[in-house]
Amino acid sequence: MDNVIILGSGCAGNTAAIYAARANLKPVVLEGHEPGGQLSITTEVENFPGFVGGVQGPQLVENMKQQAIRFGAEYRAGRAVKADLSKRPFRLELDDGMALETRTLIVATGASARWLNLPNEQKLIGHGVSSCATCDGFFHREKLIMVVGGGDSAMEEANFLTRFGSKVMMVHRSENFRASKIMLDRARSNPKIEFITNSIVEDIFDVSKGYVTGVQLKNLVTGESYTRGVDGFFVAIGHIPNTKPFIGQLDLDEDGYIVSHGGARTNITGVFHAGDVQDRKYRQAITASAAGCMAALEAERFLESEGH
Ligand code: NDP
For ligand 1, atom 5, which residue shows the shortest CA distance? Predict the structure, then answer.
């Protein structure tokens, strides 16, 4: 039986692993369906403190992983597909059919950005296609930027991106916005934002060049398809928290995010949360790392209180 199993190997999971390993708890990290988490699909990270000249996202998470391994963390490929949190030790079933038992569990499974699933979208991530304006807006100074979505995230990202881009085009599939009135009004009154409603993006170009040069749009009212030149393409159509194995056990909100019971605690004693799986607001590498640290400290104190 393990002391601590950490689900997820993004910034939250890796930082939890560093702290738990340094506390001699020999944590086991299940790397999950996207080892390294969201940073593994980004390029340069310029806002993680401590890297004056920036750092490549995949390198940053790999550094964290190696740091955790140095102190005794064990990394395993795979993910939990089922969890029994009704009694301790907690029992996890993995995608390879194995089962694991653990005294404490840190859920750092993240929230996956929802993508449009366009033919070239995944190929251009990190090369103009992004799901995070805070992360990548800076690379598009005086460039043409497109944002897709009609919720608060899309409004916030479009407004934020006007600090960088010469123009921001906001594409939404209808005329009805889920965004709050105040956020929508702010975007509408921003002279740098052009609204393109009742429209969808059909594809992104240009994979042969290796970066974004434009998109094909379709007007859903007229049926007309046409191309527009863009340099940066931001998808802001929501996130999906990775909490499926915990439905009916952990307290989740209406969108599936873990509801915190203070600090890193969940409604189940001995199960802790870390990172984007609980955080729909900040979603930054540094906040996920901080949450991972909190979860590991809480797991350590909990185990100590139980005499382990
Ligand atoms: P939302 O679910 O609110 O909005 C998603 C948007 O994406 C909708 O407009 C939806 O269109 C559109 N969309 C979904 N799928 C597709 C698709 N396949 N193709 C095209 N468009 C699509 O997500 P958000 O991330 O914007 O917000 C999530 C939550 O976080 C909300 O509660 C929001 O209020 C909150 N939030 C708050 C902020 C703040 O207060 N500062 C900032 C950011 C988020 P449709 O409406 O047609 O379904």
Answer: 237
For ligand 1, mutation pick of 237, 254, 284 (most atoms within 8 Å of CB): 237
Q: Are residues 13 and 101 in the same domain?
A: yes
CA atoms within 13 A on the CB side of 172: 21
Q: Residue 33: CB partners within 8 Å, gap ≥ 6? A: 79, 242
Phi, psi of 237 (to 5 degrees): -110, 25
Q: pTM, whole model, 2 decimals?
A: 0.79
**Ligand 1 centroid – CA 42 distance (Å):** 22
pLDDT at 40: 85
Residues with CB under 6 A from ligand 1: 116, 148-154, 156, 173-174, 178, 237-238, 280
pLDDT(42) > 80: no
Sign of CA dihedral 240, 150, 180, 288: positive
Could you tell me if 29 and 108 lie in one domain?
Answer: yes
Mean pLDDT of 22-40: 94
Q: What is the pLDDT of residues 96-112, one digit of tens each?
A: 999 999 999 999 999 98
Asked if pLDDT for residue 46 goes beyond 80, the answer is: yes
Note whether 230 and 245 are same-domain residues. no
User: Among all residues, which ones are annotated catalytic?
Assistant: 132, 135-136
- Tally the domains of the chain: 2
Residue 265 is predicted with a pLDDT of 98
Name the residue of 146, 178, 257, 278 to mutate for ligand 1: max ligand atoms within 8 A of Cβ: 178
Mean pLDDT of the chain, nearest integer: 95
Provide the percentage of residues in the chain whose pLDDT is more than 70. 100
Are residues 243 and 210 located together in one domain of the fold?
no
Exposure b/e, 261-300, CB count within 10 A at least 16 = b:
beebbbebebbbbbbbbbbbeebbbebbbbbbbbbbbbbb
26 and 109 co-located in one domain? yes
CATH number at residue 265: 3.50.50.60
Nearest CA, atom 13, ligand 1: 237
